[in-house]
């Protein structure tokens, strides 16, 4: 995959993340390889039971499944808009990488996008 011009590129837990500033926020291309699961590949690196980041963007290719602590699940299939609240495990479905274009505000993403701090049905 051709690198994104002007973006910082890094690999974490097998995931390729390219990040560039855009105004007050950031745009990220995140490539989750086939076989990726957050609880298997990232949990020990991050040190939390679940992924506590919000993911908002556009799934360009692949399929991605998220499961919250209360058992709720959601699955995304490209092309699709994605909004995943904090407090989830997530994994790639199938043999194709999942490529997600994300928009965030670092530690202010939840607040600035009006999302809950953690998934709930309240």
Order of helices and strands: EEEHHEEEEEEH
Q: Structural class of the helices, strands and pairings?
A: mainly beta
Number of DSSP E strands: 9
Shape estimate: globular
CATH class: Mainly Beta
Strand order of the largest sheet: 1-2-3-9-4-7
Mean pLDDT: 95
Number of helices: 3
Query: What's the CATH H-level homologous superfamily?
Result: Jelly Rolls
Distance between the termini: 41 Å
**Strand composition percent:** over 45%
Question: At CATH's second level, what is the architecture?
Answer: Sandwich
Main beta-sheet annotation: 6 strands, antiparallel
Low-confidence stretches: none
3D architecture notes:
With 122 residues, this protein is mostly beta strands. It has one domain: Jelly Rolls (Sandwich). The chain contains three helices and nine strands. The protein has helices at 38-41, 43-46, 109-112; strands spanning 8-12, 15-22, 25-32, 55-61, 63-68, 73-77, 80-84, 88-93, 98-104. The N and C termini lie far apart (41 Å).
Give the helix/strand layout:
Elements: E1 8-12, E2 15-22, E3 25-32, H1 38-41, H2 43-46, E4 55-61, E5 63-68, E6 73-77, E7 80-84, E8 88-93, E9 98-104, H3 109-112
Antiparallel strand pairs: 1-2, 2-3, 3-9, 4-7, 4-9, 5-6, 5-8
Quick recap:
By secondary structure, the protein is mainly β.
Features:
3 helices; 9 strands; six-stranded antiparallel beta sheet; three-stranded antiparallel beta sheet; 47% strand; globular; Jelly Rolls; 10% helix; mainly beta; 122 residues
């Amino acid at each position: 995959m051709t690198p994104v011009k002007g973006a910082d590129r890094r690999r974490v837990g097998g995931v390729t993340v390219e990040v560039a500033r855009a105004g007050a926020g950031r745009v990220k291309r995140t490539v989750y390889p086939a076989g990726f699961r957050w609880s298997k590949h990232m949990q020990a690196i991050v040190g939390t039971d679940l992924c506590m980041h919000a993911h908002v963007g556009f799934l360009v290719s692949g399929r991605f499944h998220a499961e919250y602590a209360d058992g709720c699940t959601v699955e995304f299939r490209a092309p699709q808009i994605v909004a995943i609240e904090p407090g989830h495990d997530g994994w790639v479905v199938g043999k194709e990488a999942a490529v997600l274009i994300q928009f965030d505000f670092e530690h202010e993403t939840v607040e600035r996008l009006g999302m809950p701090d953690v998934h709930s049905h309240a």
